[in-house]
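Contributing new records

If you add data, match the layout below exactly. Sequence lines come first and carry their own label; structure lines follow with theirs. Keep one chain per record. Anything else will be rejected by the validation script.
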Amino acid sequence: MRKFTKQDYFKTFKNQSYVEQLQKVERKFETIHNETAGTTEVTIYGIIGDSWWEDSVSASDIDNVLKNISGDIVINLNSPGGDAFDGIAIYNRLKKHNGKVTINVDGWACSAASVIAMAADELVMGLGSMIMIHEASSLVWGTKTEMRKEADVLDELEEGLIDIYMTKASVSREEIRNMVDAETWFGAQKALDIGFATSTVATDGKDKEITQLRAQITNMQSELEQLKNQSQKDEPAPAPAAKGRRFIF
């Protein structure tokens, strides 16, 4: 079986309009600690995953940074996505961090990077920035039985991803599921309206006040929706990927 390439990954996008720009996002991973403010700034640019093409940022990279810092952190995010399980692991690692997590979407938060964005206590969309959510996919080689099993695992993986989106979304679970299936792109305002973002980069003071008010309304809608969903049956965590397979999202 041939090696899975970056080009293969981008072919999974239904909307190919932005692929050329996304392919140009270079890896940048750095940490700057401000002792005076007691905060740490982390930049995460590029593919999410464990050294697929030697230009990625992995869950291990994030864990190594977070275990050595405390207090509030600010993450500058610009990523076309990558490995679904690395995205999930980074999300959970950030949620466990003892301090406020602010994430600035500088450009893109696509695919697995959109999962990371959901870990923010405060998610700020930069002007012109975008979030994208879509179906999980994987490379499969084998019998029809193995392929059916793989499809079952992808179903479970997507349920876990939807669980994460629903921690922020102000719409129903079915609406989020449909958005995932269709591959949906959110500009800054759309991300704010649906509850994914808490604010956008405002151009003046008045815009900032309006943005904050919209965010408060969205958060209240999200809390009401989550109360409705509490009665839903608990769903199992995504099954681990089979050996030799690589999940992408």
